[in-house]
Amino acid sequence: MRKENSTNAENQKILEMSCGLTYAVELLNGRWKVNVIWNLSKGINRYGQIKRNIPGISEKMLTQRLKDLEKEGLIIREDFKTVPPRVEYHLTEAGKELVPVLKKLCNWGAKVRKETSVSF
Amino acid sequence: MRKENSTNAENQKILEMSCGLTYAVELLNGRWKVNVIWNLSKGINRYGQIKRNIPGISEKMLTQRLKDLEKEGLIIREDFKTVPPRVEYHLTEAGKELVPVLKKLCNWGAKVRKETSVSF
DNA sequence: TACGGTACATACAATTTAGTTCGTAGTTAT
DNA sequence: ATAACTACGAACTAAATTGTATGTACCGTA
């Protein structure tokens, strides 16, 4: 958790307030986050499925990211209250609207990566 | 011939997409980074000017971000070798191509922020 | 009886990032 | 004479993120 009155936290708040761009970037900040969103946009909605679809992610990180995204209003958690447990995550409207933007970002990233990866 | 909707092809697509995307997100990662890019896109090219345009940024962070962006191939540093020193930073082609994507991200962020900032 | 599957929680350690402070050198303005 | 401006560099501290290792509860299967 972020301390309330550190310069670090202050700056984050200032940036989030200052404009839509910094707000968006702060939201996307956090490893695995876009991968989770991407999976949800593909119809992969259960914890275990997402986990299996993101090689390398730990259970803690997945749990944390899902919570983050829920807090931020990008996804909704639906608990079916069954045994064994079944929980589904879905993108909200805001989350869905982000997907095409991520696609553009993805295209740009793929292109730039090709151009700059000459050294490898 | 590879089937269009085989699991293999789907997975490959997902991986390619998520790779370009995660690559892009990693590039954007780092506080103040998009602010610097934004300033450069508006024709604010000198260290001091950028610093004055980003309230709260420290000189160390600005220096660091400029270096990062240069390494990543998004900006170029031009030293005029004068006294007092004059250095200009400019977006590369890759950097310029990112700007419209950032605009979309900005619009999305502004919209989402309005919707979710009821508490303020 | 022991294990695997479900979806997490919690304590802790390691790593990375962000921010503070002080310093450089030459020139110009007060 | 002193301060400010230019664009940084380096050492250091504070804070945040990420990862690891464990435990939880319930059920079905072998």
CATH class of the domain at 31-109 in chain A: Mainly Alpha
> How far is the N terminus from the C terminus of chain A?
38 Å
CATH architecture of the domain at 31-109 in chain A: Orthogonal Bundle
CATH superfamily membership of the domain at 31-109 in chain A: Winged helix-like DNA-binding domain superfamily/Winged helix DNA-binding domain
Major sheet of chain A: size, sense and barrel closure?
A: 2 strands, antiparallel
Proportion of residues in β-strands of chain A: 5-15%
Oligomer: homodimer
CATH topological fold name of the domain at 31-109 in chain A: Arc Repressor Mutant, subunit A
Helix count, DSSP H or I runs of 4 or more residues of chain A:
6
Describe the protein in words.
Chains A, B: Residues 19-117 form the HTH hxlR-type domain. Chains A, B: InterPro entries: HTH_HxlR, WH-like_DNA-bd_sf, WH_DNA-bd_sf. Two copies of one chain form a homodimer. Chain A has 120 residues and is mainly alpha-helical. The first copy, chain A, has a domain at 31-109: Arc Repressor Mutant, subunit A. Chain A is built from six helices and two strands, in the order H-H-H-H-H-E-E-H. The first copy, chain A, has helices at residues 7-18, 20-28, 33-41, 47-53, 59-71, 93-116, and strands spanning 75-79, 87-91. Chain A has a two-stranded antiparallel ribbon. In chain A, strand 1 and strand 2 form a beta hairpin. The longest helix of chain A has 24 residues, at 93-116. Chain A is globular and about 45 Å long. The N and C termini of chain A lie far apart (38 Å). The model of chain A has no long low-confidence stretch (mean pLDDT 90). Chains A and B meet through helix 1, helix 2, helix 3 and helix 6 of A and helix 1, helix 2 and helix 5 of B. Chain A binds a DNA duplex (30 and 30 nucleotides) through helix 1, helix 4 and helix 5.
